[in-house]
Amino acid sequence: MVNFALENAWLIPFLPFMAFVLIALVFKPLPKVSAFVAITCMLTSFVLAIQIGIGVFLDAERFIEEPLKHTFTWFSMSGLTIEMGTQIDPTSAMMLFVVTLVASLVQIYSLGYMHGDVGFSRFFAYLSLFAMSMLGLVIAPNLLQMFVFWELVGLCSYLLIGFWFFKYSAREAAKKAFITTRTGDFGLLLGLLLLQINFGTLDLVKLGEMIPNFTQYGLTASGLTVIAIILFLGPIGKSGQFPLHVWLPDAMEGPTPVSALIHAATMVVAGVYLVGRSLILFQTVPAAMTFVACIGAFTALFAATIAVTQVEMKKILAYSTVSQLGYMMLALGCGSLTASMFHLMTHAFFKALMFLGAGCVLHGMHNELNIWKYGGLKKYMPVTYWTFLIGCLAIAGIPPFAGFWSKDEILLVTYNMFAHGHQPIYLVLFIMAVITAGLTAFYMFRMFFICFHGELRDEHAHPHEAPPSMLIALIVLGALSIVGGLVGMPWLEHPFGYYVRLGEFEHEAPNYFIMVGSVVVACIGIFTAITIYLKKSVSHEKLAEQYKGIYTVLYNKYYIDEIYLWLIHNVLDGLGRFLWWVDITIVDGIVDGVGKSTQGLGSILRRAQTGKLQHYALVLFAGVVILVVIMAMTGTSSASSMLGGVR
Amino acid sequence: MMGNIGLEHFLIFSGTLFCIGLFGALAKRNVIAILMGLEIMLNSVNINLVAFSRYATTGDLTGQVFAIFVVAVAAAEVAVGLALIVAIYRDRMSVNVEDFDWLKW
Question: In this complex, do B34 and A612 lie within 8 Å of one another by their Cβ atoms?
Answer without folding.
Answer: no
